[in-house]
From TrEMBL:
Subcellular locations according to the entry: Cytoplasm
GO biological process: L-proline biosynthetic process
Taxon lineage: Bacteria, Pseudomonadati, Verrucomicrobiota, Verrucomicrobiia, Verrucomicrobiales
Keywords: Amino-acid biosynthesis, Cytoplasm, NADP, Oxidoreductase, Proline biosynthesis
One Gene Ontology term, aspect cellular component: cytoplasm
Protein name listed in UniProt: Pyrroline-5-carboxylate reductase
EC category name: oxidoreductase
Molecular function per GO: pyrroline-5-carboxylate reductase activity
Cited function: Catalyzes the reduction of 1-pyrroline-5-carboxylate (PCA) to L-proline.
EC number of this enzyme: 1.5.1.2
Keyword set includes rRNA processing: no
Catalyses which reaction(s): L-proline + NAD(+) = (S)-1-pyrroline-5-carboxylate + NADH + 2 H(+); L-proline + NADP(+) = (S)-1-pyrroline-5-carboxylate + NADPH + 2 H(+)
Gene: proC
């Protein structure tokens, strides 16, 4: 019996299972994978040493817990097909945005145990940020298992279900905003005459370094910012420009846009 059966070997599913294997939360024999395109699962199994299975039924029969990482609109079809007629209670972990615990339970069947996780793709390199939410029938052991998996690929917080929208705004979707910021910062260096390669290297390392300063110093970001901004110097000129362009409001609005889209996706008609 495998400890985890992955449904959906896409961007998020693969980032997670790669991370679980690389960080030792699972060994290859503990993991089985099933995805719509069979060759993808076979290639993944050949690379990692895990087991590729050819059907959802085989995955369910050979796994004590399932990690469902298909698109939100594919979730009902995948879970109902996987668990139709399965009487033994299975742990079902979903990472889908906008698919509620009640909807997951209705698709999977009321006897199964539901946990929702909102991860992000840096899990692939052990630098993920995830939230965990207990759904119907989830036990303390289930939550401990999920916490063990996801804390192996980054940090975890536990939130009630109505806070998952906010988590999507702040971390689930947010790597994409940060990539956009890094790209723009590198563009700024290119405008000022740096090579693209040097500028991207400096921009990415600066974002990484600043994030680590926030985490490791425990100081408020404003305190760290003041330590960079000399009176009458270059940094305060740049901060003035960012504030005039509305960077702070733009970022708050971006998190709200993601959270609101998640709320919209969670409504029954979507
Ligand atoms: N991408 C991200 O940053 C994040 C995504 N999420 C959530 O993760 C989920 C997956 O997103 P993402 O990885 O980006 O999407 P992808 O489209 O990259 O991956 C979805 C995968 O599911 C497979 N699939 C679809 N239907 C089925 C089925 N019935 N049975 C088995 N496999 C199936 C696809 O098949 P095939 O193998 O043929 O391509 C594909 O590999 C979403 O619900 C999303 O909300 C959550 C947080 C962050
Ligand atoms: O864009 C999306 O809908 C998914 C959910 C969070 C990140 N990616």
């Amino acid at each position: 019996m495998h400890d985890l059966g992955l449904i959906g070997l896409g961007n998020m599913g693969r980032a997670l299972t790669d991370g679980f294997l690389a960080n030792g939360a699972l060994t290859p024999p503990q993991l089985a994978v099933f995805t719509r395109t069979e060759e993808k699962a076979q290639d993944y199994a050949a690379t990692t040493g895990c087991t590729a299975v050819a059907s959802l039924a085989e995955l369910v029969n050979s796994s004590s817990a399932l990690l469902a990482a298909v698109k939100p609109y594919q979730m009902h079809e995948a879970l109902s097909a996987a668990l139709d007629g399965v009487t033994e209670s299975k742990l079902v972990i979903s990472v889908a945005a906008g698919v509620t615990c009640d909807t997951l339970s209705a698709s999977a069947g009321a006897n199964h145990r539901i946990v929702r996780v909102m991860p992000n793709t840096p899990s692939l390199i052990g630098a993920g940020a995830s939230s965990i939410t207990a759904g119907p029938n989830a036990t303390e052991d289930d939550l401990a298992f999920v916490e063990k998996l996801f804390s192996s690929v980054g940090i975890c917080v536990t939130v009630p279900e109505d806070k998952i929208h906010a988590v999507i705004g702040v971390s689930g979707s947010a790597p994409a905003y940060v990539y956009t910021f890094i790209e723009a910062l590198a563009d700024g260096g290119v405008v000022q005459g740096l090579s693209r390669a040097d500028s991207l290297k400096l921009a990415a390392q600066t974002v990484l370094g600043a994030a680590r300063m926030v985490q490791e110093s425990g100081d408020h970001p404003a305190v760290l910012r003041d330590a960079v901004a000399s009176p009458g110097g270059t940094t305060i000129a740049a901060i003035h420009s960012l504030e005039q362009s509305g960077l702070r409001a733009a970022v708050i609005d971006a998190a709200a846009a993601a959270a609101n889209r998640s709320r919209e996706m969670s409504r029954p008609s979507n």
